[in-house]
Amino acid sequence: MMAVELGFYLLSEVVPGQPYTVLPDILTGATELPNLSGKHERYVRRAKLLLGQYAEAKLWRADVGLYAALPEHLQAYDIDTNSGRFSLKRVGFSRNRVFTLKRLFD
Question: Where is each pPIWI-RE three-gene island domain found (predicted)?
């Protein structure tokens, strides 16, 4: 499920505040991302390599559903599958994984 968290991390960096449902459009280029910094352009390029399977929206939604069904203490992100919103948990052991996710993009 680390790939799902990597997708959440990308979204929080590149399009903060957007629902997680936009990831497939970002990976396919269907969503225009104007004014990205060089760092964020690099993040998107790497995401296309690391998360390319999620260009298929159905697979992305299915894996997010599996992630949401995990025990809460294993999740680094809180998810609302009804609205598509997600947020990084402020406390918990799993939150430390976000530092690893960042290193995959940097």
Answer: 3-103
